[in-house]
Amino acid sequence: SFVIGNDVLNGAHPIWAEDENGTKIPLNIYGSDLHINGKSVQGQIDTNKSNIKNLGSGVAGSTALTAALTALPHTSKESKLSCGVGSAAYSSRYAFGFGCASKVNERVDINAGGSYVFGGSKSYGEGTLDSGVVKAGFVFKLGELKNANQISMKEKKELKQEISILKENNQNILAQNQALLARLERLEKIALGESNSPDLVLYKLK
């Protein structure tokens, strides 16, 4: 049964439901709609559920949009203009992006692009999460610019070490070639009968 309390709490009489034994039970409005200040409680609950669902889908779409943007080029190094495409997926939302980056001069780069998420925009209450986003950026290089043809001191030291090793290897190869030539000359003399030296056969290549 529906009970209205006699006591006044915070300026109002409390209400509750009781079973046949007088035990308080959940208040169940059956067969009619409960209104508060002229607004349907169930209608507000349904609206909130729909808004929360759309908000979650919209957030997933926004995440996919952002991920697709990150795949686009931000600077152009090897060429004057670079363009690229990007794609992303998050929580069953899929997005596609396209953008370009251009080198204005040695110190300034610009980039622009956009992405679109499939499935349309999502409305939640008084707000809307759109299905597309665009971006533009500028890169300013400050300080001394490093020439691409210049090498660091560490790289220079490593190159010197490699050159030194190559020189040593070349010297060893030259020494071996000279030994081979000397042996070849002696073998030719043996073949021609011009030399009878017994230690020719024992000559070993270093």
Written overview of the protein:
The longest helix has 40 residues, at 153-192. It contains two helices and eleven strands, in the order βββββαββββββα. It has a four-stranded antiparallel sheet with strand order 6-7-8-11, with helices on one face. Strands 1-2-3 form a three-stranded antiparallel sheet, with no helix packed on it. A two-stranded antiparallel ribbon has the order 4-5. The chain is α+β, with helices and mostly antiparallel strands and 206 residues long. It is 34% helix and 29% strand. It has two domains: 1-146, Pantoate--beta-alanine Ligase, Chain: A,domain 2 (2-Layer Sandwich), CATH 3.30.1300.30; 153-200. The chain is elongated and about 135 Å long.
Brief rundown of the structure:
With 206 residues, the protein is of the alpha+beta class. The chain has two domains: 1-146, 2-Layer Sandwich (Pantoate--beta-alanine Ligase, Chain: A,domain 2), CATH 3.30.1300.30; 153-200.
Question: Any chance you could write out the topology, listing elements then pairs?
Answer:
Elements: E1 2-4, E2 15-18, E3 24-25, E4 35-36, E5 39-40, H1 41-70, E6 81-90, E7 93-103, E8 108-117, E9 122-124, E10 127-129, E11 132-140, H2 153-192
Antiparallel strand pairs: 1-2, 2-3, 4-5, 6-7, 7-8, 8-11, 9-10
GO cellular component, one term: cell outer membrane
Organism: Prochlorococcus marinus XMU1424
Protein name: YadA-like family protein
Number of strands: 11
Helix content: 25-40%
Write down the CATH topology of the largest domain: Pantoate--beta-alanine Ligase, Chain: A,domain 2
Side by side, the strands of the main sheet go 6-7-8-11
Average of per-residue pLDDT values: 83
Our count of domains comes out at 2
Low-confidence stretches: 202-206
Which sheet architecture does the biggest sheet show? 4 strands, antiparallel
The CATH homology group name of the largest domain: GSPII I/J protein-like
CATH C-level class of the largest domain: Alpha Beta
Shape: elongated
Report the CATH architecture of the largest domain. Answer: 2-Layer Sandwich
Number of helices: 2
Distance between the termini: 113 Å
How do the SSEs run, as a string of H and E?
A: EEEEEHEEEEEEH
Query: What share of residues are in beta strands?
Result: 25-35%
